[in-house]
Amino acid sequence: MAxxxxxxxxxxxxxxxxxxxxxxxxxxxxEVINFSKPCNDKVFNCELNSTPISEEDVSKAxxxxxxxxxxxxxxxxxxxxxxxxxxxxGSQQYWVKQCLKIYPQKPNVCNLDMHMxxxxxxxxxxxxxxxxxxxxxxxxxxxxxxxKLRWVTLGYHYDWNSKTYSPDHYTPFPKDLHSLSHxxxxxxxxxxxxxxxxxxxxxxxxxxxxxxxxxxxLDHTRPLLSFSFGQTSVFLLGGTKREDRPTAMFMHSxxxxxxxxxxxxxxxxxPCIVPAxxxxxxxxxxxxxxxAEAQDDDIxxxxxxxxxxxxSWYLQTSRVNVTVRQVLGSGQDFPSAQASHLSSCEKSxxxxxxxxxRKSKSGYERDT
Length: 368
Fold this sequence. Notes:
With 368 residues, this protein is an alpha+beta fold. 25% of the residues lie in helices and 18% in strands.
């Protein structure tokens, strides 16, 4: 069914996006590439480099030995690497908890800051968990702040209106996420990758992500890393022009995408979250427990039963995606004029309620 709308032309990407986004009748997923069961002539095995990082190093970040990773490329998309869930059993729980409990904390920025005071958004997790636990018992409650969360920015905070980064709008990038990203990038041929900016998107069951290109970083020679946790989504990867025919693929919990080289500036989108199969509210990999106790020097640490109960309830109908970027090249700096211009723009935007509302909406629809 999908093949009939996969022609080249002005609206080829938009048509396929709408096809997978529709709800009634539901879309046919038969032509979506499933990397957990690769049997498509577009897919080929991709060799990674295990030399730069030891088995112990990747284990500390919750990853299997690089030699055990199942990595794939796509014919026609040089520089694109898909890694099918390389996480050790139970380690995804740590990263999910970080995305829901730790990374939304101040001084990081989220969509709720656009229309709420900093006091109200100071601790989204603590303000939400009691209500969520009551919901878990079947009680009807209003939406919590955690359920209203749509995006969080880390490091150099992305400006959704100007589509730029600024040295004046920066907070320290999380060390654990930097370590994870550094290890994955090194295995994919990018040693020395410096994680400087992160965008977390929180997808509910009816969420989508519009067609766009990630081109705001000043250095495009470094890869863009994308980590997925929770429910499965459909990801569309197109070409350098909107009329280029896109390829559809599933992104399951634990999957990692690396976009580098020619694929770094391709159009892409997420049209839908795939409904979970009946009786399987959580992907099986999220129900696994760690095989060994975490050591003090490990990046990942064990997640308490109480915290995971909240996380698992949230993920029954949601997906969290983390994209990590290096904004500046080696020795590169921001243009001085940009810094002062953005500073005045940010002040103006903050004082305009109408713009705040638009910023919140565009931010949610902007990034993978």
